Structure formats: C-alpha cells, structure tokens
Amino acid sequence: MKSLLVFGGNGFLGKRICQTAIEHGFKVTSLTRSGKPPRPMISSEKDWISEVNWRQCDVFDVNGYNEYLQDATNVVHSIGILLEDSSYKQKLKSNEPFKMSSPQWGNNPLKKDSKFTYEMMNKQSALKIAEELAKIPVAAEKRTFTYISADRGFPLVYSGYITSKREAEMGLMRLEEKLRPIIMRPGFMFDEVVAASKGGKDLRTAFKTVFDTFNFANRLILRNKLGFVNELIRPTVSTQQVSRAVIAKIEDPTFSGVCPLDEILDV
Questions:
Q1: Residue 40: which CATH number?
Q2: Residue 101 lies in a domain
Q3: Is residue 167 domain-resident?
Q4: What is this structure's pTM?
Q5: What is the per-residue pLDDT across 115-170, written as a single tens digit (0 to 9) for each?
Q6: Is residue 169 domain-shared with residue 229, that is, in the same domain?
Q7: Is 79 within 8 Å of 47 (Cβ atoms)?
C-alpha cells in the first residue's frame, strides 16, 4: 500500500492532506506535537479520521520520528507559521476581530519561544526532516518530500515569513539527487467545510471574501492588465483544493520542483 507521513497532520491544511490521501488509498501516519486527531467538523469526517495513525513527536528531535521515516515512501511537511506569535492561530479559529496593530498580536521578546520563529518552524524543521529522509537508502524510485510553501507574503506580515519559505525551497532542491522535492505554493487558504458549517462567519472566510472581492474587481475593471496589481491581488484557494494538488503531484512520478498557485487551482 502507498504510504504517506504527514508532519503537522492535524493542522488546518495537514488534516485535509491526510483526508485526501486516505481517499486515494494511502496508508497515512500523522506526526504532531500533541499526537491527537483533529475534531471532526461534520459527522462524516469521523470515518477518515479513524483511518489515520495519529502519533506524537517533537519535530526538532530526530530520534522521535526517525523510525517513521524508515518506511515512508512519501513525506509531507505541513508545519509553518505566519507570525512569530503562537496566539494568532487561536485568533484565526475564533470570531474575534483581527487587528494586527493590537499588542496581543505582536511579538513579546520576553515570552518568545526560541523554536517558534520563521527560521526554525518554516525552514529548519523542513530541512532537517528532508536531510534525514535523504540518508535512507532506497531500492526503487525516489521518495517524495512535499513542502508547503507560499505563493506570496501577506500584507502586514513580516518579510521574514516569505524569506524563510524561499530559503527552505532552495535547501530542498539541493537534495534533488536523493529525493523528489515537491514544493507547493498556495495563496491564502480557507476550508470549505468550515466555511459552510459556520455560514461564512469565521475569520478566515471573512478574509477570503475581502480578497475575492479585490480579485474580482481586478478582473472586471482592470482586466488583469496591471502586473503590479496582479502580484498584490492573488486568488484564494481551499485546503481541499491544495490537498488534491498535493496528492496529484505525489502520484505523478515525472513531477518535481515548484507547483505554483495557478497550477494548484487547475488540478
């Protein structure tokens, strides 16, 4: 059976990658800090959740996950942060107003976790896993390593976010002789199930509505003719669509390298 090991498998995107992989006949193991499965949003999600092997590990402790790498033919890194402040993830799950200027969203150097940085979470965690995977000899075709990168940076988000993503990409491509790197560059993501269940009132869907409105206006009024506007206003994409693209690229033995947002949307 095809196997898939997902780091961050109970996260916002990671759980959808696990779901799509199960639906495509993969044997799936998820490794996360808690080791717990995600809470089902609808009753039907209990079926695929029960089929995933949920396990706990510290992504920075090689000894904690090396045994899982041995038999993994495909590995996905779905760990990353948008801000160097862990509280923002809880805010995105709530219905509270999102105010980047508020002190609660800022970085408090006295409370900052040395591991919760762009350098560590977005870059070093991925490179360390990939380097360990590359050490394992393979008799048949190369193992795949899929990295969830990003299409662009986001307004009001520090430049270190996209810099760490691009540096991780370059490091992964240097392992191309031993692995088949797959680099996904989605834009702003929302979840179709969450959007439907909450009636579009959750924070991510609210952001999606704003971004989609700007994107529609760009197409209708400007006809996508201004390059700098096209660079700023990008389409949103669902976690389900990104997950389908991830599995499609894994199952395509001829693909390696970068899968841009436009290609993700076409899968």
A1: 3.40.50.720
A2: no
A3: yes
A4: 0.85
A5: 889 999 999 999 999 999 999 987 678 999 999 999 987 767 889 999 999 999 99
A6: no
A7: no
- Indicate whether 70 and 197 sit together in one domain: no
Residue 71 makes CB contacts below 8 A (sequence gap 6+) with 3
Domain of 203, in residue numbers: 192-233
User: Regarding predicted confidence, which is higher, 255 or 228?
Assistant: 255
Sole residue written with tokens 């780091």 = 7
Tell me what the mean pLDDT of segment 249-258 comes to: 97
